[in-house]
């Protein structure tokens, strides 16, 4: 099989997943966007969290041209990127009980804020406890996960529950257990994961929905512009100044 054919098959698989999410998750995406718009309008704050590769879609909506300036990354040291050495430490930390509570307790997140938690499997202690603890202190929780894992795997949290069980809104990425879209003779393991493509698209769809909802209420969405277009830095400086008390990634 030619390499170009495999590339085409991956694009087809990713497009198919995006179409499923667009068609099947539209009501939940609208609900999530409304939750975020409600928080912005009420003067509350926005946070996104993900561990390992699930941190990539979370980071994609933080300090992003065309994105909401109020979205802050809730960082858990050692879990947010492949710069952790050894890389396996990040996976191990996702299974540590009590870590999520310590992070939330020391964060600026509080009652009325929104926390988006991204976890493909939703089975590890960190995202499950993050959602449980966040809701206990009054945060609204949006979970972005693959619901298939809840029936195809076992939870690693002591409660036996998954991220999806502790959210105000659940967005299902439709990713199959294992996160690999292709397999061929001659390669023993399945390959070509699509979770980052799909989950990043979900996040941007939610942000777009929130911006539109704010505009429909007569409110200017606090959006950032690209610093690589004329006037971008000046625009962003005004946004940062106006909303500085809700923007924590610059402190």
UniProtKB/TrEMBL annotation:
Organism expressing this protein natively: Streptomyces amritsarensis
Family annotation (PROSITE patterns): SIS
PANTHER family tied to this protein: PHOSPHOHEPTOSE ISOMERASE, SEDOHEPTULOSE 7-PHOSPHATE ISOMERASE / DNAA INITIATOR-ASSOCIATING FACTOR FOR REPLICATION INITIATION
Entries under CDD domains matching the protein: SIS_RpiR
One Pfam family hit: SIS_2
Similarity remark: Belongs to the UPF0309 family.
Sequence ranges assigned to domain SIS in this UniProt record: 36-221
Protein name (database record): UPF0309 protein AVW11_30920
């Amino acid at each position: 099989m030619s390499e170009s054919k495999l590339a085409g098959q991956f694009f087809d698989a990713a497009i198919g997943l995006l179409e499923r999410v667009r068609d099947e998750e539209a009501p939940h995406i609208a609900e999530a966007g409304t939750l975020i718009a409600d928080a912005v309008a009420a003067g509350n704050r926005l946070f996104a969290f993900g561990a390992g590769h699930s941190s990539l879609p979370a980071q994609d909506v933080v300090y992003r041209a065309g994105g909401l300036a109020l979205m802050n990354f809730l960082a858990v040291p050692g879990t947010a990127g492949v710069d952790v050495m050894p890389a396996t430490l990040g996976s191990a930390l996702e299974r540590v009980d009590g870590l999520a509570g310590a992070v939330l307790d020391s964060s600026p997140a509080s009652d009325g804020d929104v926390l988006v938690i991204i976890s493909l499997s939703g089975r590890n202690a960190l995202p499950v406890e993050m959602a449980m603890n966040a809701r206990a202190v009054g945060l609204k929780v949006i979970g972005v996960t693959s619901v298939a894992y809840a029936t195809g795997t076992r939870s690693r949290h002591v409660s036996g529950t998954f991220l999806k069980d502790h959210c105000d809104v659940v967005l299902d990425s439709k990713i199959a257990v294992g996160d690999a879209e292709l397999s061929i003779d001659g390669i023993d393991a399945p390959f070509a994961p699509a979770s980052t493509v799909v989950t990043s698209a979900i996040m941007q769809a939610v942000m777009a929905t929130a911006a539109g909802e704010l505009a429909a209420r007569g409110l200017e969405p606090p959006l950032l512009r690209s610093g690589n277009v004329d006037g971008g830095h000046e625009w962003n400086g005004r946004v940062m100044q106006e909303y500085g008390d809700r923007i924590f990634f610059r402190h």
